[in-house]
Specification:
By secondary structure, the chain is an alpha+beta fold. It has 3 domains: about 220 residues, Distorted Sandwich (Beta-galactosidase, Chain A, domain 5), CATH 2.70.98.60; about 240 residues, Aldolase class I (TIM Barrel, Alpha-Beta Barrel); about 80 residues. Helix content is about 15%, strand content about 35%. It has 12 helices and 50 strands. The protein has a 9-stranded antiparallel β-sheet, covered by helices on one side. It has an 8-stranded antiparallel β-sheet with strand order 1-2-3-4-10-17-16-13. Helix 2 links the parallel strand 20 and strand 21. The longest helix is centred in the middle third of the chain and has 17 residues. The protein starts with 20 loop residues before the first strand and ends with a strand. The relative contact order is 0.07.
């Protein structure tokens, strides 16, 4: 699968019905082909709903066959091959245990002259969810929109019934040579779905055929599971294994000492962060734009071979990296791997390194992004390899923020690009004319990864500059900025949640979503600071701050401590198809014998918000009684049964930990982290014989650690002898229905505790 090909290894022809219909199935879905009408119908077997009727690529069909299939990624299945008179082949595939039908279109040049293909309409038809009278909504990269208002979505699209969540999910699993797009519209009372691949220029020699990208389509009673399943399939295809998720600081938005900071203050920041936040999980200091040399009239300077001798790091970037590393932190750096500046004297003798415009042969210049480097040109590749080698191995940076990523595709900037925009892809000429725009881009990303090595964390920045870089980066970056630049002002602060929510299912599967930094500076109202910290923590997305840490008051610094480290779980928005951004999230931890659940409630409006959500819709047991503790109010709230009903003030949040009321004392919350036990509690066990609640927790030295235990008043509390000998202090106080145990650990590590009742 690393080659981008799904391989048919078992080619024995299976017996086929002599009637007009042929079909393949996998126990979940069935694909039927009508040989008379040449239509395809897809059936959800559990409900017997025909959820899609349509056609494959255009052409006169010559033959249809069904074959056995063995794939190194998806295992055993069946394939239906539709062969056309011009020689191209479309394939439908059904794999055991995969909740999708896969569609792989083909193309062939049956002429006598070379042919160039700009785009291919791969799959087109109508979607029927079987819900008469209810018009579905679409969710795509452009947001939550009516089907006839959606301009098109890059790589994936969900068509769902609000409230019910039943829906169809379609998504391109591969993005090896082409850029997949999915369009929607209205036809009578149904939604029309059209899947297209844009290539720019896919060159086919006379007689040459190609198998194209792979589309997945399926129907789900909960379309969120379909989106997550599609992301899992992409991760399987590209063999994605994400590194540990970092937490850190980006210089760009800091006030003071923003942009690239400077060698004096980056050292002060690193020392402070290592001392005050390192024990909580802080790990990265990243230097942004402004350190590099070069000349530019539009956007950043783009000579990344060296630092600006008159800039913020006169002693050079190796010294800056060494100083950060001396505090036990990972140094990070910003650069633009695929961008140069054609008029910069540094590039004067290297004009062949640049992509050219088809219209006049001039270097391919883009707004803000400079001149696109040609990743099919050996000289340009050698230049990039030397830059990455120097940054990673000579200077010692272990975290890359790679901006202007789209320039590697040889397309114009479209910022802010979320829904589909025709960017004219195909107006660029590459050194190797047989490489498509996406192929050249992916070759460049592979070169960066191979040169940097597996130990360097790679953040792509950013998809909305031009979304061709979004799917094109699948499997080749560790994280991706999924939205435009944010800021501490409310209108900009919510950009991260807006874009991060609609892409939530990518996070932790394909890459880590980067919603841009959190802000806790004093100019940010405390409710806003709590909201953005809570959303990033609950959603689990990449947690970076951009604050001058030594200047923060203790209470604002404490907000950051409660977000670290990232929990490493998969959170899920409850109202994904009803509200944008979603207002309700559920984070569940089922890794151990004790289940922990945290509900995040986020009010994005300036008016009070009433929440009335049935528990089963949230993802909890509808028939259970739940005890509840709200983190920011630091108190128990009324028990929940059947429905969560609360009021949330405007532009604020609530974070509620819930536990089933089993009639015995339970640890419902801790002070260490916004997730209230998920990153710190190792073990919790109730012993009915001794009537004791015992547990183990990971604590931070010098950080008072509070256990919130719901139940009757405890007789006493104790920590282990080893903890007492190490100097740990413990105190207990009781308020109605809640025991508060505060442990004062002198050192970081594991502490054992017990309450007796």
């Amino acid at each position: 699968m690393a080659t981008g090909l799904i391989l048919i290894l078992t080619t024995a022809l299976l017996a086929a019905d002599d009637g007009p219909f042929l079909s393949i199935a996998n126990g979940l879905l069935e694909a039927r082909y009508n040989r008379k009408t040449e239509d395809v119908a897809l059936v959800h077997l559990a409900s017997r709903q025909v959820f899609f009727r349509g056609r494959l690529t255009e052409g006169q069909v010559r033959d249809v066959k069904i074959r056995g299939l063995v794939d190194p990624t998806f295992g055993q299945g069946k394939a239906m091959e539709v062969l056309y008179q011009d020689g191209h082949l479309d394939t439908l595939m059904a794999f055991d245990g995969l909740a999708f039908i896969l569609v792989r279109p083909g193309a062939c040049n049956d002429g006598n002259e070379p042919r160039s293909i700009r785009s291919v309409k791969a799959f087109d038809g109508v979607v029927d969810l079987g819900l008469a009278g209810q018009r579905p909504i679409t969710l795509g990269t452009g947001g939550l929109l009516a089907a006839d208002k959606n301009p098109g979505s890059y790589m994936w699209l969900a068509i769902a019934a609000p409230g019910l969540r039943r829906g169809v999910v379609a998504g391109w699993i591969t993005c090896d040579r082409g850029s997949g797009v999915i369009f929607s519209g209205i036809e009578a009372s149904l939604v029309r779905l059209t899947a297209q691949i844009d290539y720019g220029r896919l060159r086919l020699a006379p007689g040459q055929g190609e198998q194209l990208e792979v589309l997945a389509i399926g129907m789900f009673e909960d379309a969120r599971l379909g989106l997550e399943g599609w992301a899992d399939a992409v991760a399987r295809y590209y063999k994605i294994r994400l590194p540990r998720q970092p937490v850190g600081f980006c210089t760009w938005y800091s006030r003071p000492y923003g942009r690239a900071s400077d060698q004096e203050h980056i050292t002060q920041q690193a020392a402070f962060a290592a001392r005050c936040l390192g024990p909580f999980g802080f790990s990265v200091i990243q230097i942004d734009d402004g350190w590099q040399a070069g000349v530019s009239k539009d956007g950043p300077r783009r000579n990344f071979t060296t630092h600006d001798p008159n800039g913020p790091y006169p002693a050079g970037m190796k010294q800056a990296a060494d100083r950060i590393k001396s505090y036990g932190l990972v140094p990070g750096i910003w650069f633009m791997p695929f961008a140069g500046t054609s008029y910069d004297p540094f590039f004067a003798d290297h004009q062949d390194w640049f992509v050219k415009r088809a219209s006049d042969g001039s270097p391919y210049q883009t707004r803000w992004g400079g001149t696109c480097l040609d990743m099919t040109n050996p000289g340009a590749r050698g230049y990039l390899e030397s830059v990455v080698q120097r940054i990673a191995h000579q200077w010692g940076f272990g975290y890359f923020k790679m901006d202007g990523l789209w320039t590697g595709t040889g397309t114009p900037q479209q910022y802010v690009n979320s829904g589909y925009k025709d960017d004219g892809m195909g107006d660029a000429v590459f050194h190797d004319p047989n490489k498509t725009n996406i192929e050249a881009f992916r070759d460049g990303l592979r070169l960066v990864r191979q040169t940097a090595g597996p130990g360097v964390f790679i953040l792509g920045c950013n998809g909305p500059q031009n979304m061709r870089s979004y799917g094109g980066a699948f499997g080749l970056v560790d994280a991706m900025r999924i939205g435009p630049d944010n800021g501490p002002e409310w209108s900009r602060l919510i950009r991260g949640p807006l874009f991060g929510s609609r892409h939530y299912f990518l996070h932790g599967r394909i890459w880590y979503n980067d919603p841009d930094p959190v802000y806790v500076r004093q100019s940010v109202p405390i409710e806003h600071a709590r909201l953005i910290c809570s959303w990033v923590t609950i959603s689990g997305q990449l947690n970076m701050c951009s604050e001058w840490l030594p200047g923060l008051p203790e209470d604002r610094l404490d907000l950051l401590k409660r977000t670290m480290p990232s929990h490493g779980l998969h959170a899920r928005p409850v109202d994904l198809f009803e509200n944008e951004p979603p207002r309700v999230w559920l984070l569940s931890d089922t890794r151990g014998p004790v289940r922990r659940d945290v509900i995040g409630l986020f009010n994005w409006s300036d008016r009070q918000m009433s929440i009335a959500e049935p528990l089963d819709r949230i993802g909890l047991d509808q028939n259970a009684n739940y005890l509840a503790f709200e983190y920011w109010q630091d108190r128990m709230i009324r028990p929940i049964h059947g429905r969560l009903e609360v009021e949330v003030p405007g532009q604020s949040c609530m974070v509620i930990a819930v536990r089933k009321d089993a009639g015995v004392p339970v640890l419902i919350s801790t002070s260490r982290h916004i997730t209230q036990g998920m990153v710190d509690v190792i073990e919790e066990r109730w012993d009915p014989t001794s009537r004791s609640l015992e547990g183990r927790s990971m604590v931070v030295g010098g950080d008072p650690y509070e256990l919130r235990v719901a139940g009757p008043k405890a007789r006493d509390v104790q920590v282990s002898t080893d903890d007492l000998q190490a100097g740990a202090k413990v105190e207990l106080r009781y308020e109605e229905g809640l025991n508060r145990v505060v442990i004062h650990p002198p050192v970081s590590g594991e502490v054992k505790w017990m309450l007796r009742f």
